[in-house]
Specification:
Shape: globular
Strand content: 25-35%
Number of helices: 15
Radius of gyration: 29 Å
Family: Belongs to the glycosyl hydrolase 2 family. Beta-mannosidase B subfamily.
Bound molecules: beta-D-mannopyranose
Subcellular location: Secreted
Enzyme class: hydrolase
EC number: 3.2.1.25
Largest sheet: 6 strands, antiparallel
Structural class: alpha+beta
Main location: secreted
Length: 864
């Protein structure tokens, strides 16, 4: 009855609030904000940030447009206040009422009806308080004062007594001169500026605010874990925290997909109790990563009863799976392996790094999150690494990863810098870790907790002379950091993961791993590696073929977004390289555009045309990422993982992403989709050797025939041959090897392409190999024919064909390339290819607006 009353109250008093579950309502409506103590109150969004509230009220220009970043740095040096008023007439009938702030960014004094509830200072923690005695039936006032995170950061720094290396922090842009305050506050590092992000240090209630009310008893937390799996049964364990108002006899029931599978009676005192119940799932359907099997999810519910009455019920959607990280010596004795096993089966991890999908976290919609995770799955990826300079992502993100079979490597939010330590800081970090590990531990997709991003590789605890950071500190300070790092990354964080996940999720202390306690001379031999020899050091793209690690968890090349995206954030007169606005959207301040163009020049003839320059940057990046992904896969099982830097963007900019801020796939994402297919034919040339590999992630061997055809760019066949090829289950096989000069046998390398086609089980897998960089190739004048048809009202099928080789043909519809089912592909002479586009317009209208570009210096477009 009381639950019913609460629901009625939710529907009336809090009209407009989202009712997420019985007994809980979100207090996200009716908020106002202003600069602290000044001016009029304006409407505010919760969840939200000051920046986005100012934007919504027309008080500031779009923070992403042009060069506005530098004009908006005052916001983070200002104090702000938020308030809302609400009625709660029915809550009087509840014995327990709790107010929950799921995320407060960051230094806030929170008051309810004048009473101070919290002084917060960590955006990653959840803040709860019992408010039964404070609530009135009408006119409750919530008031939150946000202190400037930057001014508080300066105070924290002064109290700490010194600066800390924080290389990415753009303190100077923020008006702080050499002072870098990011590491003195538990906030997402990228907000303070990074080479992929602007500097927008936010404040706000960035996650929901909710009231929870109940009588007698409540299920506070529910965790379902897989202890072991087998074909006949899975051994599971359900644990929960129960809160009871009175001593008595309670019953818990566990339901699996709606069917009761366990009942247990408990005699409990008043208070909080931990219970754990083992149970079995006969003939379990396991959760598998994308490409390996179905990511099956079970609904598991816990019902708490007393004397036949239901008191509370909670549900989780989880998967049956085991995960282990293999770090042992392997057969070739070359060092320590690094690879994941899911349900006892080794899995090659193909994927990317995930960065926050917006500089303003609360405006990332569930749709955008789903689009990004789905795009990863569509590109045949099976892993995303949530990078430690970002955040612990939203529940939406992990739900999508569960559903699409994307394994998540989750960094704790520490990156690239040294952090302060003290008893108080450690307690805060422990609470943050507990909140987040507890929130995320039911997700089968989460397969690794990692202590931090790039701290060990900079600090090098066991290779002090080569440390990039130690030289900034005295020996005494350095020893102190050794202790801080040891405490946070070797003690607190793994301790929390172990105690809350019960051994079901591995922990890795730092990515990359320079080898804690091991010789660091040869970094390719063990652990995970971030390969920035290409890009930051300037090595050629071909170096990816030989720089093979056990697991490369970062590597990348920058590109620009396509023109239609650039038009959305760069004012008209500035759409050229090195304009002030373009420069403010290039985060790699030291090398940036120059490095990108250097890589473009190595392969392509540069153009004065802006749109073509953007296109060339994307091709260069796409070829690079394809080269690396295939090289890593060819070296399976020595190498068992390849994660591109980076999947997505924080804001519209030049960056290493494969999908731009507006959701347009760059050439890279199309190329990577191919390079990550379950079976790839992978030819490559090193010196005078041409190797042709077949790599398969399938769990059965493949037998077939490899047909090689060498043709010139006009379609004249120069030679062909066929070869039987067998590749084992989940294996990489060198199928054929030739000397390049012998193979070409006098053919012009600048006018020849080798078509490698492997046919097996009625499926054809194809790859093309060129013999010259494109700037030296004799790309012909090509006549490209385009047709448009409407198979149904929403879709348009575009068919393209070419008389000669059309290299990296790209289609744009109303200026946009990244919305086709395929793009940036090579069309062989005489070949025709169909791609689809979602567009309601009729075929003639679509055809009229289609534009087409290719690498060939001359391309004639014929619309049919
Ligand atoms: C890696 C990341 C980020 C950075 C990226 C590109 O090291 O961990 O710190 O944004 O490189 O430079």
């Amino acid at each position: 009855m009381k639950r019913l009353l609460l629901i009625l109250w939710l529907l009336t008093a809090a009209a407009g609030s989202r009712i997420s579950a019985a007994g809980r309502t979100e207090l996200n409506q009716g908020w106002k904000f202003r600069q602290y103590g000044l001016g009029e109150w304006l409407p505010a969004a919760v969840p939200g940030t000051v920046h986005t509230d100012l934007l919504a009220n027309g008080q500031i220009p779009d923070p992403f447009y042009g060069s506005s970043q530098s004009d908006l740095q005052w916001i983070d040096k200002t104090d702000w206040e938020y308030c809302c008023t609400f009625d709660a007439p029915e809550l009087a009938s509840y014995d327990n009422v709790r107010l929950v702030f799921e995320g407060v960014d960051c230094y806030a004094d929170i008051r309810l009806n004048g009473e101070l509830l919290h002084r917060t200072g960590n955006m990653f923690r959840t803040w709860k308080s019992d408010v039964k005695g404070l609530l009135k039936s009408r006119n409750n006032r919530l008031h939150v004062v946000f202190h400037s995170p930057v001014m508080q950061g300066l105070k924290n720094m002064a109290a700490y007594g010194g600066r800390l290396t924080a290389n990415n922090d753009l303190g100077a842009l923020g008006g702080l001169g050499p002072n870098k305050v990011s590491v003195f506050t538990r906030k997402s590092g990228y907000q303070y500026g990074w080479d992929l992000a602007p500097r927008y240090v936010t404040s706000g209630l960035w996650r929901p605010v909710a009231l929870e009310a109940w009588n007698e008893a409540r299920v506070e937390d529910f965790h379902v874990r897989t202890r072991s799996t087998g074909p006949r049964k899975a051994q599971m364990s359900a644990s929960a925290a129960l809160r009871t108002d009175a001593a008595g006899s309670y019953r818990i029931r566990i339901l699996l997909n709606g069917k009761s599978i366990l009942t247990a009676d408990k005699t409990l005192d008043a208070g909080t109790h931990s219970i754990e119940e083992p149970f079995e799932i006969p003939s379990p359907r396991l959760w598998y990563p994308n490409g390996m099997g179905e990511p099956y999810l079970y609904d598991v519910e816990l019902v708490l009863e007393k004397e036949g009455r239901e008191l509370d019920r909670t549900a989780v959607r989880c998967g049956v799976r085991t995960v282990s990280l293999r770090c042992r010596d392997d057969a070739d004795g070359r060092g320590r392996g690094f690879g994941f096993e899911i349900n006892g089966i080794p899995v090659f991890c193909k994927g990317s790094n995930y960065v926050p999908a917006d500089a303003f976290l609360p405006r990332i919609s569930r749709e955008k999150t789903e689009f990004l995770v789905r795009s990863a799955a569509q590109a045949n990826m099976n892993m995303l690494r949530v990078w430690g300079g970002g955040t612990y992502e939203s529940d939406d993100f992990y739900e999508m990863c569960d559903r699409y079979g994307i394994m998540v490597w989750q960094d704790f939010v520490f990156a690239c810098n040294m952090y302060p330590g003290s008893a108080q800081i450690y307690a805060d970090i422990r609470a943050e870790a507990e909140d987040n590990v507890r929130r995320l531990r039911n997700h089968p997709s989460l397969v690794l907790w990692c202590g931090n991003n790039e701290i060990d590789v900079a600090w090098k605890p066991h290779d002090k002379r080569n440390s990039r950071f130690r030289k900034f500190y005295t020996e005494e300070e350095a020893e102190q950091f050794d202790r801080v790092n040891e405490t946070i990354f070797r003690n607190i964080l793994p301790g929390v993961v172990d105690s809350l996940c019960g051994g079901t999720v591995p922990y890795w202390h730092s990515s990359p791993s320079p080898g804690w306690g091991l010789d660091t001379a040869d970094r390719w031999r063990y652990g995970d590696v971030h390969n920035w020899d290409v890009w930051h050091k300037g090595d050629p793209i071909s170096a990816y073929n030989t720089q093979i690690a056990r697991f490369t968890s970062e590597y990348g090349l920058q590109s620009y977004p396509e023109l239609s995206s650039v038009e959305r954030f760069i004012p008209e007169g500035e759409r050229r390289l090195a304009s002030p606005s373009m420069t403010s959207h290039q985060g790699d301040r030291k090398k940036g555009d120059a490095r990108m163009l250097e890589y473009v020049d190595r392969s392509y003839l540069r153009s004065d045309d802006f749109a073509r320059t953007l296109y060339l940057s994307q091709l260069m990046q796409a070829e690079g990422m394809k080269t690396a992904m295939e090289a890593h896969r060819r070296n399976m099982p020595y190498c068992m993982g390849s994660l591109i830097w980076q999947l997505n963007d924080v804001w519209p900019c030049a960056s290493w992403s494969g999908i731009d801020y507006y959701g347009r796939w760059k050439a890279m994402h199309y190329f990577v989709r191919k390079a990550c297919e379950p079976v790839v034919v992978s030819p490559y040339i090193q010196g005078d050797t041409l190797d042709i590999f077949v790599v398969s992630d399938l769990r059965k061997p493949l037998r077939g025939v490899m047909k090689l055809t060498l043709t010139d760019f006009s379609g004249n066949e120069l030679k062909s041959s066929s070869h039987p090829v067998t590749v084992g289950a989940a294996a990489s096989q060198r199928a054929l090897r030739y000397g390049v000069r012998d193979y070409l046998d006098g053919a012009d390398p600048g006018n020849a392409v080798l078509v490698c086609e492997f046919r097996s089980d009625k499926t054809a897998y194809r790859a093309l190999q060129y013999f010259e960089t494109m700037k030296n190739a004799a790309l012909p004048a090509a006549a490209v024919r385009i047709r448009a048809e409407k198979p149904d009202a929403a879709t348009c099928r575009i068919t393209v064909s070419s008389d000669k080789l059309a290299k990296n043909l790209t289609l744009h519809y109303k200026g946009t390339a990244g919305i086709f089912s395929d793009n940036y592909f090579d069309l062989l002479p005489g070949e025709s290819r169909s791609v689809t586009l979602t567009a309601p317009e009729d075929a003639a209208e679509i055809l009229r607006h289609i534009e087409c570009m290719a690498l060939n210096p001359e391309t004639t477009i014929i619309k049919l």
